[in-house]
Amino acid sequence: MSNIVLNIAEGAGAGSDMEFKRFLRMSLRSSYEVNSIFDIIKELALLETEKIEDLRKNLDEISAMTSGLIKSLNK
Questions:
Q1: What is the pTM of this model?
Q2: Architecture of domain 2-74
Q3: CA 51 to chain centre
Q4: Where are the chain's structural domains?
């Protein structure tokens, strides 16, 4: 999940809304990758299902906030 946060931070310093949105979209794509990693972890039983679902919930919240920020920048 660090790549998600790092993309947002890098975009915040990009200097323009257009560039910031580009990094926010990269962050969303990274969240899809992380969600897939959660599926693999679950399938391999590397972590308790409850913990994975908690992490997935956090990821969903971060993704929703990122999507909302992109929409607000489009106005």
A1: 0.88
A2: Up-down Bundle (1.20)
A3: 18
A4: 2-74
- Report the C-alpha dihedral over residues 25, 1, 8, 26, rounded to 10 degrees: -20
Q: Which of 29, 49, 28 is nearest to 38 (CA)?
A: 49
pLDDT, mean of residues 50-72: 97
> Apex CA 47: angle with CA 41 and CA 52, to 5°?
75
Using the Cα atoms of residue 32, residue 33, residue 36 and residue 37 in order, give the sign of their dihedral: negative
User: What is the separation, in whole angstroms, between the first and last Cα of the chain?
Assistant: 28
Q: 1-47 pLDDT, tens per residue?
A: 789 999 999 999 999 999 999 999 999 999 999 999 999 999 999 99
